[in-house]
Amino acid sequence: MYPFIEVTAVAALAMYGVLRGARRHFDLVGICYIAFAVAFGGGTLRDLLLDRHHVFWIENDHLVWIVMAIAVAGSIFPNLIARLEPVLWIPDALGLGLFSILGATYALDGGTGRLVACLMGVLTGSCGGVIADVTCNELPLVFRRSPLYATCSFCGAATFVALRELGVGNSLAMGIGVSVVVALRVGAVRWNWQLPTKPTSEERGV
Amino acid sequence: MYPFIEVTAVAALAMYGVLRGARRHFDLVGICYIAFAVAFGGGTLRDLLLDRHHVFWIENDHLVWIVMAIAVAGSIFPNLIARLEPVLWIPDALGLGLFSILGATYALDGGTGRLVACLMGVLTGSCGGVIADVTCNELPLVFRRSPLYATCSFCGAATFVALRELGVGNSLAMGIGVSVVVALRVGAVRWNWQLPTKPTSEERGV
Amino acid sequence: MYPFIEVTAVAALAMYGVLRGARRHFDLVGICYIAFAVAFGGGTLRDLLLDRHHVFWIENDHLVWIVMAIAVAGSIFPNLIARLEPVLWIPDALGLGLFSILGATYALDGGTGRLVACLMGVLTGSCGGVIADVTCNELPLVFRRSPLYATCSFCGAATFVALRELGVGNSLAMGIGVSVVVALRVGAVRWNWQLPTKPTSEERGV
Predict the structure, then answer these.
(1) What are the residues whose beta carbons fall under 8 Å from the beta carbon of B129, sequence distance 6 or more?
(2) Distance from C-alpha of B27 to C-alpha of B35, rounded to nearest angstrom
(3) In B, what residues contact C, Cβ < 8 A?
(4) pLDDT tens-digit profile of C59-97?
(5) Where are the alpha helices (DSSP H) in chain C?
(6) Which chain C residue is nearest to residue B200, measuring alpha carbons?
(7) Is the model's pTM score more than 0.95?
(8) Residue B200 DSSP code
(9) Contact B64 A145 (CB under 8 A)
(10) How many contacts (CB atoms, under 8 Å) link A and B?
């Protein structure tokens, strides 16, 4: 089950990267860069911070081939991936759940505190997009008004960490944690849940 | 003495991050991201480059709680922190001194050369701000005309490294190094000391 | 031979950094930052990802002195370096070749797969420029229409990896790999070879 979710989630992230690159008319090199940044950025940062070696995609060669294949295919046939876009958020939500809880697990296994474990979950889940946005010279999406993303990740990771502290078995805690992230994310996309922000002066009509 | 300066310095950096995020109307997630980037960015990069594990904030859990608390409080009561802003540069200057000399110490202890130790001091002191600026899609402040910051860091670190080479005890050398950074930074803010730059054509009135 | 190419390549990269900083009217601190980012960014990322410690420039102190000297000299006498610009692409091409093949070698020695080794070559060769561009708040040059750069790196690294697999001796494989990168890069600059991109609506005259 786990490797299957991982592959589909990495593929969904890579496709988002390809779509973003194609929209900005990058060439193959640029599209590959963005696809790798979105798919691998968060996990790489997690592995470096927790001193896990090899980094996960160096260890799991097949993920690199998948992202590369998607980037090349997406550069040649951009419409192929554009047609998948409406359903991409589903594997993306699954991946957010999986990566968030994996990040928290690795952190706890590495002996970090509880809050750090939750943050490592958030970082694994959302930093790839931040790195890609920053590289593309755009303000990261998680900083702008958009449906909850990092928040879903945090709540799920916190649930998982709390359950582990309460003595719940690891597999059950992981299952519940992933479900919390996915359920929140599905709700956020469906009903456009957002965190409150203060209106800018333009929005207040000034 | 040292833990007290560290906590106030991290808190000051986190408040700067919160103010910057609030000014750009980020939501809680964005404000947390910036607060963590400003407070932990430089030290994290230093620890990764010198292969020190765990990274300092994973080791010192309480710093993470402090930054998180400031980010949450600052999102709910932005005026609270805005009122502290006029005096924030004082703990910030202390923190710049502390982090610069700590960075240089860790580098020397890790067996690096002298120039590398000075640069590691600068990087520890100023890279958090650079990472936060880049993430916010702004040109880093240290690249723009502003009172000396990285330069104070470099001079203090160089003084510290020179004193250690001359056989001065570590504590005394650290004390003098921190004092040099703080004195220079206070002077730079007070009298607006800047490095020379070539005027742009607009500034020359062309 | 190798240390000589390394020093000239690092010097060429640092000069590009100085020119870029000077054009944007950065002060000495900004110019140093950019020069270090261009010269050391790619190799640093490679060393962190492959867990090679110390990072190459901490190990090889003299490279840091060279970049620092170029940044200081370039801030004081900007015309000196500007006059060298027309020929800088030659040591830069050599450096691209050297760093790409070195990156791939280190990766294979670290036990990575073949595709990862090729990508590590590309990353070593081109990530310094990407980091510098992102820090300067510009869209990375490798993402915009420009003569082949990362592609040369990839083709040379792939040739090197293939030759090693076929049992060719390491030195010969490295020599051929470097030659492929340099030859492609010289051709790309000379005849302006680019990867195809889809025209933007402006370019289509819409």
Answers:
(1) B16, B38, B41, B42, B140, B141, B142, B149
(2) 12
(3) 48-51, 110-113, 115-116, 119, 130, 134, 137-140, 142-145, 149-151, 194-200
(4) 888 999 999 999 999 888 878 888 888 888 888 888 899
(5) 2-23, 28-49, 56-59, 61-76, 78-109, 114-135, 150-165, 170-191
(6) C25
(7) no
(8) P
(9) no
(10) 69
Q: What is the ipTM of this complex?
A: 0.88
Mark out the alpha helices in chain B (DSSP H runs).
Answer: 2-23, 28-49, 56-59, 61-76, 78-109, 114-135, 150-165, 170-191
For residue B135, the distance in angstroms to the closest alpha carbon of chain A comes to 6
Cα A197 to Cα B30: distance, rounded to the nearest angstrom: 10
Cα C48 to Cα A126, B39, C106, C112: the distances in Å are 21, 22, 12, 14
Extents of the domains making up chain C: 2-191
The pLDDT tens digits for B28-77 are 899 999 999 999 999 999 999 999 988 999 988 899 999 999 999 988 88
Question: What phi and psi values does residue C166 have, to the nearest 5 degrees?
Answer: -80, 0
Q: Write out pLDDT tens, residues A40-78.
A: 999 999 999 999 988 999 988 899 999 999 999 988 887
Structure tokens at B16: 């700067």
Q: Closest approach of chain C CAs to the CA of A200, in angstroms?
A: 24
The angle formed by the CA atoms of residues A160, B39 and A57, to the nearest 5 degrees, is: 50
Non-local (6+) Cβ contacts of B1 within 8 A are none
